[in-house]
Design goal:
Blueprint lengths: L5 H9 L28 H15 L4 H13 L4 H10 L2 H7 L6 H9 L3 E3 L2 E2 L12 E4 L7 H14 L6 E2 L5 E4 L4 E4 L14 H8 L2
Antiparallel strand pairs: 1-2, 1-3, 3-6, 4-5, 5-6
């Protein structure tokens, strides 16, 4: 089925699937990306497009996204890697990357509705920054809900070919498919970042 609408148009504008859902997979859409309709893009224009794409992938406002750049600049190390690490460690993104949500927007909705707790404490802030050693779990009263029952069934298919009852999503996360927990094993490293994000162009945009 070919999906249309504002989100599909945004994906075509940037030439990539911005929202993680299969229905926005451009390989299933026979219409050309909107980027192919324009002539050569200027240096600033390219920086803007890369910034817009990454901002939309994480579902953030311009102010929120710019604030991550400002935080990254103040941190020791490489600014681009710092920025991506901060974005990756958002709780809504972790829920998405661990396959507990279909899209990052659904992950944000789940967090907003207080579906999860971190180290035994309820957290309803999508921008919450996880740290090494944190254990994220579904609140007990929600484990019997339809959405998480189906998640258990999906994970069971994965663990059939794994030992120890665990499924790794991102390398820095460990998922216990039976207990429905996510453990942060390490901070995300350069190789863990989404390769479609051109962080250098983003840094150039904000550094002007």
């Amino acid at each position: 089925m070919r999906y249309t609408g504002p989100k599909t148009k945004l994906c075509r504008r940037e030439g990539i699937n911005l929202f993680g859902s299969e229905k926005y997979d451009l390989s299933q859409n026979h219409r050309k990306p909107l980027t192919s309709r324009f002539g050569k893009t200027s240096g600033f224009g390219l920086q803007l497009r890369k910034k817009q794409a990454a901002k939309r992938m994480f579902g953030l406002t311009e102010r929120q996204f710019a604030n991550y750049f400002k935080k990254a600049v103040r941190m020791p190390g490489v600014t681009g890697e710092n920025m991506l690490s901060l974005l990756e460690r958002r709780l809504d993104n972790v829920i998405f990357k661990a396959n507990f949500a279909r899209t990052i927007m659904q992950g944000r909705q789940f967090v907003n509705h207080a579906h999860f707790q971190v180290n035994g404490k309820k957290v309803d802030i999508p921008s919450y920054q996880v740290s090494v050693g944190d254990v994220i779990s579904i609140r007990e009263r929600l484990k019997e809900s339809a959405v998480y029952k189906s998640l258990v069934l999906e994970f069971e298919e994965f663990v059939k070919t794994n030992t120890g009852g665990t499924v790794s999503a991102a390398k820095w996360l460990e998922i216990d498919a039976k207990k429905l927990t996510i453990t942060v094993k390490a901070l995300p490293a350069k190789e863990d970042f989404d390769q479609v994000i051109d962080v250098q162009k983003i840094i150039e945009f904000y550094s002007k």
